[in-house]
Structures are given as C-alpha cells and as structure tokens.
Specification:
The chain is α+β, with helices and mostly antiparallel strands. The protein has one domain. It is 47% helix and 16% strand. A 3-stranded antiparallel beta sheet has the order 1-3-2. Strand 2 and strand 3 form a beta hairpin. Helix 1 crosses helix 2. It is globular. It comes from Bradyrhizobium betae.
C-alpha cells in the first residue's frame, strides 16, 4: 500500500484532538478505553496519530452508525 505524503502526516495528541474537534482529555480517555482512533507511542510520553488512520476510523464509525460494514 502506497501512502501519500499528506496521508502519512503525523499529529501530536493535541493536534489530533483539534482535527477531531474533541478535547485533549476526551482523546486521552478514548486511548485508555481503547475506543478511539489508532495511536502510536514513542517512549512513555510521546503519543501521535496518523491522519489517514484517523480518517479510516471516522469512516468506520460512520459506516457502523449507518448500519453498513466496510
């Protein structure tokens, strides 16, 4: 799978929260509950997200809400 440069953009947690229009706290709670978009860790403190994974997660949420599976 070839990922375009824009799609492989990495976001810090605060940037991902802004992208999703949720609070940083909500995003952290989703991480702990393992219900949010896929995330990655580098060490114990750095958490980041890929835009294409957030978009795929949103699409899956939309499909589940409308009763369709991908």
């Amino acid at each position: 799978m070839k990922v375009h440069l824009e799609q492989s953009q990495r976001l810090r947690a605060i940037e991902a929260a802004k992208y999703l229009r949720v609070s940083r706290s909500t995003l952290a709670k989703w991480r702990m509950a393992k219900v949010g978009p896929p995330h990655h860790r580098c060490g114990s403190r750095l958490v980041y997200y890929f835009v294409y994974e957030i978009d795929a997660w949103l699409a899956a949420c939309d499909a589940a809400a409308s009763g369709h599976s991908q």
